[in-house]
Design a protein that fits this description.
The complex is a heterodimer of chains A (431) and B (249). By secondary structure, chain A is of the alpha/beta class. Chain A contains 12 helices and 20 strands. In chain A, the strands form 2 sheets. Chain A has an 11-stranded mixed β-sheet with strand order 1-3-2-6-8-10-12-14-16-18-20. Chain B has a 6-stranded mixed β-sheet, sandwiched between helices. A 4-stranded antiparallel β-sheet of chain B has the order 2-1-4-5, with helices on one face. The chains are: A alpha/beta (431), B alpha/beta (249).
Chain lengths: 431, 249
Amino acid sequence: MELAETKDISTRMFYDLYDGVLAHADFDPIDERIKKSYDLIKDEAVPSIKNEDWKYTPIRKYLSLFDFQPHISEIPTCEPKFALENKVTIENGHITSIELTKDAAGKIEILPLIEGIGKYPELVEKYFYKTPLRSNDYFVHLNQSFCLNGLFIYVHDHCIINEPIYIQQDCYNENETFHETHNLVLIGRDASMHLIKKELCTGEGGKVFHNLLTDAVILDNGKFSFNRLQNECKDTYQITHFYANLLPHAQLNVNNITIGGAFARNNFWVELNGVESHAKLRGLSLLNEHQHADNWVKVLHNAPYCESDQLFKSIVDDEATSVFSGRIYVAKHAQKTNAYQSNKNIVLKETANSYSKPQLEIYADDVKCSHGSTSGQLNEDELFYLRARGIKEQEARKLLLYAFAENLVEQLDNEHFKDEVKALISQKFEK
Amino acid sequence: MLSIKNLKVNIEGKEILKGLNLEVKPGEIHAIMGPNGSGKSTLASVLAGREEYEVTKGEVTFNGKNLLELSPEERAGEGVFLAFQYPVEIPGVSMMNFLKTAVQEIREYRKQNQLDAKTFLQLVKEKQKLVELDTKLTNRSVNEGFSGGEKKRNEIFQMAMLEPTLAVLDETDSGLDIDALRIVANGVNKLHTKNNAFIVITHYQRLLEYIVPDYVHVLHQGKIVRSGDKSLALELEEKGYDWLKEATV
């Protein structure tokens, strides 16, 4: 369903928005990267539904809803402060506060992107601006062309951050805005961090389009747990990219919960580059009205003895659409790989849609891989069983929907966050 | 209490029940026996309100109300209970949450007070004992990972919790060993009063040694072809169902 487009939906449109950004960035390493990324896409149009990766998500249609006004992006600065919990606040695309406990402050550094790059140029050179480029994604190049905004998070070697780091991202701009964010996360050797990110909008405002990228590198035996809640208002559209590069014995645990927002395309690109590294990815989308959520996943087994496990679920109601496209890639030398992928969808109305594309690409011969996908309605036998015990149909449906979401929510490893998500789920089902 | 008159039921266009009549009064236990495919389970499903079954003719009244017009949950509220032949596993719905919701909804329907948490837990404990269901119910999903015997005991346990006036046991004996059968039957006998009634659907006479029926009906090709007292069950056990086929040809 591509709308007739009268607009120029190409890189030029974004360049007009950021007119001057290139001149503004007189910072050498960034300048070079910007030019490189920009050169890759400068003459390109935004992908259309003819592109296989965007087949079920008409991104051009979503972009054509916007009438962005040019502005010059400011490079923000923000000093970390001591506090009782670890919390970063981002408002309308800008970091407004960074708070760390005394315990965490010695173990972790959270800085605005530009400051982080300035402070640790050799680490950036060694680890970053690499994995995302390998995916050769239009919106990644776009992000790297213009983006000077974001967080630099570095957990020092052998440091365990006991308390979670909360990131609250809030948008309440009155004008239509286009935000880009580029986060770099480096988990040191034997280090561990637990990130909980809540994306909200507390005020009604203009439409927001967000192109957000997180590039994470987990060094040997490091652990990174990332819980994310997408619960924005109806005017939020976003493309998000999560890249992870896992070195030997590294562990990654991602839980992505999508409840609010008009449109979200979430790309997860996980490279298992070190032996015995481990990645677990969970996604839950609860969608109604005209919401559209597309989870695109690629897990690359580039080393032997690694394990990955994907479970993505969605419940779609009204005219909502969920898309899952997942691929497990196993390189020729990545023997003894265990890789699992599962996608389950419940479609509540005939007007709702769910698309699923599970894929395996295996070049090694001694591996255990599985994938599966189911889409359907609520189980009639289960529904009847509950009703036969006196439970009203509507209540019975709610119990079953909750049960479908439950096993994913139960795996969230932070009790506060778990309770918050549970409450939001019941709220959504009340509607 | 229950009155079924000339009931005809189709499923997917095929007639399964072809004019069934049955009267059940409070305090009575009725056994319905019959060969495979005679319509026993269809009768149970129609009484509980499964929507795939199409009633083409006849009427079913329960305590003066037209049962066929009520939704499954309203029937449960009115006091009808079906013990399923194949209890459904519902992963993710905890037994306790399920029981609490069912008990409170049924009490609301019957205009009874809601139970407080303590009374509810006491009731659960007491009824669990009745059916010797000693498994911990907290942290378990409905029927998930239950053995065959546990599932059937769980049905009788739910019956005890919901206090129906008419319970339909659909082949509750199938797949049970002799000890489990005795436990299930004991549970039923303890719950039997002069105010409630049971319809026991079974293929074999075995269960009826433990739950003694007042009436035995033989269902064949969608109709009750013979009714009698408990001695009819013994006769069936001896002769099998073949004589029926000869009799109806």
